[in-house]
Design brief:
Blueprint lengths: L3 E6 L5 H10 L4 E5 L10 E6 L25 E4 L1 H9 L3 E18 L14 E12 L4 E7 L6 E4 L4 E4 L11 H11 L8 H16 L3 E6 L3 H14 L3 E7 L7 H10 L5 E5 L1 H8 L5 H22 L3 E5 L4 H7 L23 E3 L7 H10 L4 H4 L19 H20 L8 E15 L2 E14 L7 E2 L4 H14 L3 E6 L13
Parallel strand pairs: 1-2, 1-3, 3-4, 4-9, 10-11, 10-13, 11-12, 13-14, 16-18
Antiparallel strand pairs: 5-6, 5-7, 7-8, 8-9, 15-16, 16-17
Length: 506
């Protein structure tokens, strides 16, 4: 039984970072909506309450009964979570005159407290709240303060219940990882969540789940579907059939290159040319959500067609990972963007879904791939969206626009490799904008397309910063694209970070 820490999500932008930090400590954790505590508790070692955009006294604030958690599991409230524990216990939470946002320092704290062991004096923490705890019940012990926040952290006496009004999960909290590590020790976790343990557990679970059933898997050429394929192959062997679809929205020469890569993995792969079907379905469609849904439906339809050609296929494998699930539906029910491999299958399909990586972040998938002995070429390939170039062409998708974008992106990616920059960025891509502008090429006036270059640094795709690529490199890329790609006369570089922007433009 894999022990775990449960994170109850109250809508914070950094909930996923809490999970990431715990995973870095080799502790398995899962995120649940604030009001959906798991029914099966035997493997739970501790609980964390996340932050929230709400105030505890707001009419629409997310609240839940924590009486079944306190005294049953070690409990840590972060920001709103800390305020909620205090509020429900009879303390007072009030709005402060100005929002406390940014760096602060722990001016005083109890370094004998289990949560704050080995924390440095004046340790920097990150505050992000408009409310503060102004009064605690008598059985609360204040264990840390800053110059501005007199109740920066507390413990309930004779309970393994703590609250901190800062965010230990963010990078700017200098000893934040130590605080989370101390909580992990309080929970008595064995810290055995490793790539090798994941592989062993996952393959065993897949064997039990799938038995002798046949599985069909859609490959994309990316690390997610590749690792999924290897894991399913380990569990099912000859019962796995992989389908690689040329949807006409792949990178230049991607179809041939990927098929060649998979020959070395011993996988049974069928290539399907479906370019014209996708182009026909996307004709006249400019809305990004519609494009995503059309592309997703086309994938499912093609898998269904291919599965029908095979005998007794019962499962559809997918390379869904945690950020796909998180971004597909927020805690408030608001769709950020839909992913074609999230949300289940149409009712008419007889296939069931198997997603071995659905609880992993991207960097964890790469670690698993290395543990499996896969080639660095597959493991280090930049993330590529399921809808492919369909969401990197803003507006309607046409074969000519695909040709322009493929040629421009091929130049960009190859130059990143030549300049030894490819592995220093998390993801790089080219976007074809629905913008034409005037230019001069030779003695002729042109009115052609604009492409945007995008490159970001990240560890898990939940947050990302724009990559500071050298000017001389960008100049080289721009000149190469404008000179060699027919239909482009202007190149721009995207310097927005996530948040507020997303990595992909659509």
């Amino acid at each position: 039984m894999q022990e775990r820490i449960i994170i109850l999500d109250f809508g914070s932008q950094t909930t996923q970072l809490i999970a990431r930090r715990l995973r870095e400590l080799n502790v398995y954790c899962e995120i649940f909506p604030y009001n959906k505590f798991p029914e099966h508790c035997d493997d739970i070692r501790g609980v964390i309450l996340s932050g929230s955009p709400y105030s505890v006294y707001d009419k629409d604030a997310f609240k839940t009964d924590i009486s079944n958690i306190r005294n049953h599991f070690p409990l840590l409230g972060i920001c709103y979570g800390a305020q909620l524990i205090a509020h429900l216990s009879g303390g007072k939470v009030e709005a402060v005159g100005t929002r406390e946002y940014g760096r602060a320092n722990l001016s005083a704290f109890d370094n004998t407290n289990d949560l704050l062991k080995n924390i440095r004096i004046n340790s920097q923490v990150w505050m992000s709240h408009g409310d503060t705890i102004t009064k605690t019940p008598d059985n609360f012990e204040i264990i840390a303060r800053t110059n501005e926040v007199p109740i920066a952290a507390y413990q309930i006496k004779n309970e393994k219940t703590w609250g901190v009004q800062f965010h230990p999960e963010v990078f700017h909290s200098e000893d934040g990882m130590k605080i989370l590590e101390n909580f992990v020790d309080i929970c008595e976790c064995k810290r055995n969540w490793t790539p090798s343990s994941f592989i062993e557990t996952t393959v065993a679970e897949l064997k039990k789940k799938l038995g002798n059933d046949k599985v069909i898997l859609g490959l994309s050429g990316g690390v997610d579907s590749s690792v999924t394929a290897v894991l399913l192959n380990m569990a099912t062997g000859k019962n796995l059939t992989c389908i690689f679809v040329d949807n006409g929205l792949l990178r230049k020469n991607e179809f041939e290159n990927v098929l060649n890569d998979y020959r070395h993995l011993g996988l049974n792969v069928i290539g399907v040319d479906a370019k014209n079907k996708f182009y026909t379905a996307l004709a006249g469609i400019a809305n990004p959500e519609q494009k995503r849904k059309i592309i997703g439906k086309m994938f499912i339809d093609i898998f269904d067609e291919e599965a029908a050609k095979l005998k007794d296929v019962k499962w559809l494998g997918q390379g869904t990972i945690y950020p796909d699930i998180i971004e597909s539906l927020s805690i408030t029910g608001t769709t950020i963007k839909s992913h074609h491999n999230v949300g289940g299958l149409p009712k008419y399909m007889k296939l069931k879904l198997v997603e071995p990586l659905r609880l992993l972040f991207k960097d964890e998938v790469r670690k698993v791939g290395r543990e499996l002995g896969m080639s660095e070429n597959l493991i280090n390939r930049h993330p590529f969206p399921g809808p492919g170039l369909g969401i990197r062409i803003l507006g309607e998708v046409t074969p000519e626009k695909v040709r322009i974008l493929q040629d421009a992106d091929d130049i960009y990616i190859n130059l990143l490799r030549q300049y030894d920059l490819y592995n220093s960025v998390w993801q790089a891509c080219t976007i074809l904008l629905p913008v034409r502008s005037v230019g001069v090429m030779g003695d002729e006036r042109t009115y052609e397309n604009t492409v945007a270059l995008r490159a970001v640094t990240s560890t898990d795709a939940m947050t990302a910063d724009w990559a500071k690529l050298p000017y001389e490199f960008l100049e080289k890329v721009s000149n190469e694209i404008i000179n060699k790609v027919k239909g482009v006369n202007r190149v721009v570089y995207d310097i927005s970070s996530k948040p507020p922007a997303t990595i992909e433009w659509e």
